[in-house]
Amino acid sequence: MGRVIAIANQKGGVGKTTTAVNIAASIAISEFKTLLIDIDPQANATSGFGLETGDEIENTFYNVMVNGGEIRDAIKPSGLEYLDVLPSNVNLVGMEVELVNMREREYVMQKALKGVRDQYDYVIIDCPPSLGLITLNSLTAADSVLIPVQAEYYALEGLGKLLNTISIVRKHLNPKLEIEGVLVTMFDARLRLATQVAEEVKKFFKDKVYKTCIRRNVRLSEAPSHGMPALLYDAQSIGSKDYLDLAKEIFERDGNIRKFKVRQQ
């Protein structure tokens, strides 16, 4: 059964979608079957693979969650071998209101995933910048949470709320939920502030912080406008290399490093 990792932080602009798109691509490049689920109404992870995001698109995450659509029918090929995408669109904006009156509303996503989870090695969920019902569904369905933290002032602002939400989910909805890791993003070693923030994050989260930092890189910013992850846009870029290193760390923590090494031979 595939490992489900939710990428979450209610603070916007910390690199959630960039991380979701590029870590999914990096895992898939390593020949692990991967599903990327876009649950953000902005649908940037969807467009990040050149997929349509218009509200006329019927088979999306919204249709699966609200209308009980078959998840297999909504999954789209990404154009990258070993990687599929469950797309989103603007219809998700009203989804939380529609979930309110549903029975067991926190478990809708978990139930939907049961039909496909065993077909993938990894399921990556790109969460919206909020702690509402949509994010709550992802945390209930996930095995772990990957938390991106921007290497800038106020980086730790609001993380207490996320950690409190994770604690509540563990207590009442998903006792197996754990923190997969904390990822420092937008890191610039030339700036003293970035180094100080990274050190503060390590003091707070200790060994949960990945050794890999995602450095600021123009190619990472350019790739979405071309509808592709950085690995396909410029495989030699710093951003591509950083996310490949992050994928390797994830494999090491999950016990998949041997399979990774075999597949690299």
From TrEMBL:
CDD domains: ParAB_family. Residues 3-179 form the AAA domain. Pfam families: AAA_31 (PF13614). InterPro entries: AAA_dom, DNA_Partitioning_ATPase, P-loop_NTPase. PANTHER family: P-LOOP CONTAINING NUCLEOSIDE TRIPHOSPHATE HYDROLASE, PARA FAMILY PROTEIN CT_582. This is ParA family protein. It comes from Chlorobaculum thiosulfatiphilum (Chlorobium limicola f.sp. thiosulfatophilum).
